[in-house]
């Protein structure tokens, strides 16, 4: 439920729009500044800080380096202590991302239990699953807890302060999303200390990157702050026939308009143009069994270097918070995210497992574009009644997701899995293949956090959803799906000690059941909405400087599967698991991040057309995952740190019929960093070695595809603070 300490905002489109919104908000800010204070302020919730709902601007310029999260900034739990969140949450703070030299989404999330790659290998962007459930690329990724950004291009980490995952059903706050979890990106903001840094990174494959980060506060009493980030890179990963470039620029602005009004604006634009690694299609089943080929060398790319993935994205978000008095705050948000791409997508199929000879299917896709528009209005207040302390939230949200039509053409070429050859450029005739679609997801919600004495909290809420999706195709009737439903959420938390929480939660949510992938006959179709259910029982504790979490969960959700090459809803799946995580500092010199998941997932209901899937494990769902990363800060050499990490993912079924399994794998990472001062400037020198043993392994499956893990990569980084 919402914290008593509210964040300060978010961001729109371009600077002109930002200035327009500033002028519109100025009268409200002035009015809020003169709002009378309550005469008899009620006692706040038992665990809430004794202060006004609206805080000063939260700055992050001076921060203690730590792997332990202190706040969660996602959804209804913005700026809460993780101990007060009655769901499993994992936070990857900036220092952890820096220590690991994280370059992308999967690099950050590999520290969270149950996270795996899905379908694609990650050479262009990271498609991931959590607890075996696909993280929907247009609804489950959020900027500053609000704007749904489109994860069809690498989301930059250079301008992010932390990355966090709120696992499970999140429909109460976010509307129509699957219960895999919400991935939230928190942007850097200007702090009290000026920031000017230049970072350069080189890898052993010839890749290189430069990144500049500048932050300043200004104005009367430093009431305004600006954080600017920009990066450019030459992309080389060690994969054959892979090359390209990437760039990003972002601006985060905040303004403490008055003691009663705050404003935040975030703008970011990023692009990536690289060769896309080919996906490998599953062989045909014989007698209900698929025999997989041996894993090719991890540098193998069956596609040509001209098979480009050319994408760009622009995200804009504005948030304003206005204190009406000491106990009530109104928050307004608006934002827009747009991603466009042209793609030459290659799959390798119809091959001989022994010789490797097969066929490339080359699809040229032009003009794909996805736009998310998001608005939210919310009122949060505190009051006492009948001896109980309430923190009540009323809200309304509106999200519109639009997809433009696109043109495509196809061609084939011979190729060999074990001895790839160059493929000559093609220029197929393009015809209309994808057609415009629109999704509208509106909702109103109310939830209350009730403190009963000093140790108990009850959290209860309802959301009413009004959903409509529309797909246009000239060859078939217009497809429309609608949903109008009320879903409840209920949690109970007991805090026997200040740093220990025990909770139980029951949640219901609506979700879209998926979007048909490109290799199905109904590619791009959004499937009908359905209800998912979740129950979770957990314990959280802060042991010194280490946050420990463990939880038992069960999720029941609709099953999306491919039947006769048509992607459709075909039953129901149940996910049961036990999850554990620990992160923080052990003593003065050692820091650790650990996670583990043991899970039993089963297809519990099917239709007549997919009866063979009953009782099977959902595709790409491991029975166990484990990650362990530690850093030792050598006391005998001030500034020097050594680190290592091991990451395990259990075996996974290649499809819902369990006709084959990819093997479990473990990868090792090593690193070192040294902080010193040269000519009066702070300098950080760092080296990271990923996949240190240069292991060949299947890193991903799902959607009838296979992907290979990345080769061993050494990155050397130098950062100078001016």
UniProtKB/TrEMBL annotation:
Membrane topology: Multi-pass membrane protein
UniProt keyword annotation of Nucleus present: no
Principal place of residence: membrane
Molecular function, one GO term: siderophore uptake transmembrane transporter activity
SUPFAM superfamilies: Porins
Segments forming domain TonB-dependent receptor-like beta-barrel: 291-691
Motif window: TonB C-terminal box: 705-722
Leader sequence segment: 1-32
Domain TonB-dependent receptor plug: 83-181
Keywords from the named record: Cell outer membrane, Ion transport, Iron, Iron transport, Membrane, Receptor, Signal, TonB box, Transmembrane, Transmembrane beta strand, Transport
One of the GO BP terms on file: siderophore transport
Subcellular location: Cell outer membrane
Cellular component GO terms held in the UniProt record: cell outer membrane
Family per similarity comment: Belongs to the TonB-dependent receptor family.
Protein name, UniProt field: TonB-dependent siderophore receptor
């Amino acid at each position: 439920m919402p914290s008593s300490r509210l964040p300060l905002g978010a961001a729109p489109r371009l600077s002109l729009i930002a200035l327009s919104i500033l002028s519109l908000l100025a009268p409200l800010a002035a009015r809020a500044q003169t709002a009378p204070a309550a005469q008899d302020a009620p006692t706040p919730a038992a665990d809430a800080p004794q202060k006004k709902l609206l805080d000063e601007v939260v700055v992050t310029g001076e921060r203690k380096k730590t792997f332990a999260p202190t706040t969660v900034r996602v959804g209804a739990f913005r700026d809460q202590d993780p101990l007060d969140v009655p769901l499993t949450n994992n936070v990857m703070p900036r220092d952890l991302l820096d220590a690991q030299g994280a370059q992308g989404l999967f690099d950050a999330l590999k520290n969270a239990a149950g996270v795996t790659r899905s379908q694609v290998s990650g050479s262009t962007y990271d498609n991931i699953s959590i607890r075996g459930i696909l993280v929907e690329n247009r609804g489950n990724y959020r900027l500053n807890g609000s704007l749904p950004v489109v994860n069809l291009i690498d989301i930059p980490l250079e301008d992010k302060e932390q990355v966090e995952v709120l696992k499970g059903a999140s429909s109460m706050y976010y509307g129509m999303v699957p219960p895999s979890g919400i991935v939230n990106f928190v942007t850097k903001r200007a702090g009290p200390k000026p920031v000017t840094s230049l970072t350069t990174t080189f890898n052993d494959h010839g890749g290189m990157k430069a990144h500049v980060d500048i932050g300043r506060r200004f104005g009367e009493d430093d009431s305004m702050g600006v954080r600017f980030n920009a990066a450019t890179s030459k992309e080389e990963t060690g994969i054959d026939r892979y090359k390209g470039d990437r760039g990003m620029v972002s601006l985060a602005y905040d303004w403490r308009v008055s003691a009663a009004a705050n404003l935040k604006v975030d703008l970011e634009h990023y692009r990536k143009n690289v060769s896309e690694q080919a996906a490998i299609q599953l062989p045909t089943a014989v007698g209900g069994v698929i025999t997989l080929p041996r894993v090719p060398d991890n540098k193998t790319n069956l596609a040509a270097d001209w098979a480009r993935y050319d994408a760009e994205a622009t995200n804009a978000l504005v948030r304003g918070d206005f204190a009406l008095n000491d106990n009530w705050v109104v928050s307004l948000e608006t934002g827009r995210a747009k991603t466009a791409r042209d793609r030459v997508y290659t799959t390798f199929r119809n091959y001989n497992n022994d010789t490797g000879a097969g066929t490339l299917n080359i699809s040229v896709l032009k003009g794909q574009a996805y736009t998310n528009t998001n608005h939210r209005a919310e009122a949060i207040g505190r009051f006492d009644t009948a001896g109980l302390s309430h923190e009540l939230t009323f809200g309304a949200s509106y999200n519109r997701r639009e997809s433009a039509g696109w043109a495509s053409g196809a061609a084939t070429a011979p190729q060999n899995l074990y001895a790839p050859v160059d493929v000559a450029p093609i220029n197929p005739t393009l015809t209309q293949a994808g057609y415009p679609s629109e999704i509208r997801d509106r909702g109103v919600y109310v939830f209350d956090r009730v403190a009963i004495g000093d140790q108990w909290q009850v959290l209860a809420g309802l959301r009413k959803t009004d959903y409509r999706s529309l797909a246009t195709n000239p060859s078939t009737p217009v497809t429309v799906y609608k949903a109008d439903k009320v879903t409840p959420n209920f949690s109970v938390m007991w805090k026997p000690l200040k740093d220990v929480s025990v909770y139980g939660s029951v949640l219901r949510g609506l979700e879209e059941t998926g979007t048909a992938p490109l290799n199905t006959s109904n590619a791009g179709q959004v499937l009908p909405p359905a209800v998912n259910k979740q129950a979770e029982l957990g314990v959280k504790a802060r042991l010194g400087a280490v946050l420990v979490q463990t939880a038992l969960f069960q999720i029941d959700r609709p099953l999306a599967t491919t039947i006769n090459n048509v992607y459709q809803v075909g039953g129901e799946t149940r996910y049961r698991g036990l999850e554990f995580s620990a992160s923080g500092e052990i003593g003065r010199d050692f820091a650790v991040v650990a996670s583990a998941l043991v899970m039993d997932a089963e297809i519990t209901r099917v239709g007549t057309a997919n009866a063979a899937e009953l009782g099977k494990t959902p595709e790409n769902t491991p029975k166990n995952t484990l990650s362990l990363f530690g850093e030792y800060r050598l006391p005998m050499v001030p500034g020097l740190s050594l680190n290592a990490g091991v990451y395990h993912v259990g075996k996974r079924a290649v499809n819902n019929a369990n006709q084959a399994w990819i093997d479990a794998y473990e990868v090792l990472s090593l690193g070192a960093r040294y902080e010193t001062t040269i000519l009066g400037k702070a300098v950080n020198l760092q080296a990271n070695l990923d996949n240190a043993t240069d292991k060949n392994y299947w890193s991903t499956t799902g959607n009838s595809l296979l992907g290979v893990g990345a080769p061993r990569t050494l990155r050397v980084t130098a950062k100078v603070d001016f």
